[in-house]
């Protein structure tokens, strides 16, 4: 889809200035301009395409939403009124996509079953 990337190199009107609220940041509040600065800080000689930060924000929002939804289900299942670290770990273990992503990117300890809870 074309959402979020039409602003071109300048960012357009989809930036964080919408109404001065988190509405311009997306559902999870990932600020594309802040992400652009963060990406650029890894290698100052590397340029960042105008639409790359918006794409990164969309990916982070999608992963965060899935993780929070799954962790929330785990918290409700354990009848706790809040998401705790073990619910996030449980979300990684119980969701095949999250587990695969965690394993591929060096978060195997999060995705692996906790031996102390068995």
What does this structure look like?
There is one protein chain. This protein has 118 residues and is mostly helical. The chain has a single domain, classed as Histone, subunit A (Orthogonal Bundle), CATH 1.10.20.10. It is built from 5 helices and no strands. The protein has helices at 32-42, 52-77, 85-94, 96-104, 108-111. Helix 1 (32-42) packs across helix 2. It is elongated and about 50 Å long. The chain starts with 31 loop residues before the first helix and ends in a 7-residue tail after the last helix. Its main location: nucleus. InterPro entries: Histone-fold, Histone_H2A. This is Histone H2A. Keywords: Chromosome, DNA-binding, Nucleosome core, Nucleus. Residues 1-23 are annotated as: Disordered.
Main sheet characteristics? none
Element string (H = helix, E = strand):
HHHHH
CATH architecture grouping = Orthogonal Bundle
- Taking all Cα atoms into account, the compactness measure Rg is 17 Å
Spans with pLDDT under 50 lasting ≥5 residues? 1-24
What's the number of extended β-strand segments?
A: 0
β content, as a range?
Answer: under 5%
**The top level CATH class name:** Mainly Alpha
The third-level CATH topology is: Histone, subunit A
Query: CATH homologous superfamily, by name?
Result: Histone, subunit A
Shape: elongated
The overall number of domains is: 1
Helical proportion?
A: 40-55%
- State the helix count: 5
Please give the alpha-carbon distance between the first and last residues: 44 Å
Class based on secondary structure composition and strand pairing: mainly alpha
In round numbers, the mean pLDDT is: 76
Family: Belongs to the histone H2A family.
GO molecular function: DNA binding; protein heterodimerization activity; structural constituent of chromatin
Keywords: Chromosome, DNA-binding, Nucleosome core, Nucleus
Organism: Emiliania huxleyi
């Amino acid at each position: 889809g074309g959402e979020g990337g039409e602003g071109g190199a300048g960012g357009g009107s989809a930036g964080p200035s919408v109404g001065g609220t988190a509405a311009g940041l997306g559902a999870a509040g990932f600020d594309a301009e802040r992400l652009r600065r963060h990406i650029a800080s890894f290698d100052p000689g590397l340029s960042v395409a105008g639409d790359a930060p918006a794409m990164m924000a969309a990916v982070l929002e999608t992963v965060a939403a899935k993780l929070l939804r799954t962790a929330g289900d785990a918290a409700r299942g354990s009848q706790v009124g809040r998401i705790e670290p073990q619910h996030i770990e449980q979300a990684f273990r119980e969701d095949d996509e999250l587990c695969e992503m965690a394993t591929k990117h060096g978060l195997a300890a999060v995705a692996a079953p906790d031996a102390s809870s068995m």
